[in-house]
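Input.
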Amino acid sequence: MSNSNLPSNQGNNSINPIKSAGSVNNIRNKALKPIQYCARVTRNNPSAIVILIDQSGSMEEEFREGISRAQAVADIVNDLFDSLIMKCQREGGIRDYFQIMVIGDGKEIGNSEVSIIWEGNLADKDWVSVSELKENILSIEKIETTKMMPWGLVPDIKTKKIWLNPCCDGLTPMYEALELCKEKLEDWIRDYQESFPPMVFNITDGYPTDIDDLTLIENICTEIKSIKSNDGETLLFNCLITSGNEFILPNHTDTNEFEDEYHMTLFNASSTLPPEMKHTASQVFPNKELIIGETKCVIINSTINSLINLLNVGTNTALENAAE
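Output.
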């Protein structure tokens, strides 16, 4: 059968109606595709936060003057918990918008160098809600400083709430820690399919010591990222806190500047920032070009401020969608 009745496509400026119809359908399908990473965070549908902390011996090295990497990370995570409590405070009490797990790798407990590292009353728990954090502070430290007033220096006492203590002992069994994270998230997601996707923050200062092939790290991270709710896949952030030139949330054009294969592995293993998180990142990070192109959830050779900002990018974006 001849197609002679169809309009011809002759000449450089002519329009093929068949191709045009296909383009219209493609645009329509994209428009009808559900927007992800926008689910309301509620008490019935909280989001999961998993923080993996390197507890190896190298974490004893200095992160900033007078403070070890282990102490700095513990301080940052404790401050994050305190911040989450304040941000989830509503009239009538705490709204449990998050369920949190902290996994440590390096310190040997029993027969394993990987474990969930809650202490005190939370020691036997896997997932901890925000209200449980508020009710189970491990200790409170008083920090005596001074502040300048119009009449001179006066004493100023601040308090620091502690849920986690620093640790630096052993090696870096990162692969095993990621496996444990995957196992726990697979169980969690079955009950929370309507939730904002889980967020995983892998904070490390070194090379994994329980594998010989770096592709295994990429593979296990791909499996973690494939764990998804109806609102999207798990968001995996990697933060390497060793010294060197800092790469803040690099995009695909930055990869030729990486120093070694491990940096590229962490880049490939990380999620791509969804649009709302890119918007948040562009506000808290100094690099205003983050909104251009595909940007990865990874920082290489992070400073303390960048690690704080990385944690805030995920949690603040989720809270923007929180129900009142």
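The chain has eight helices and 15 strands.
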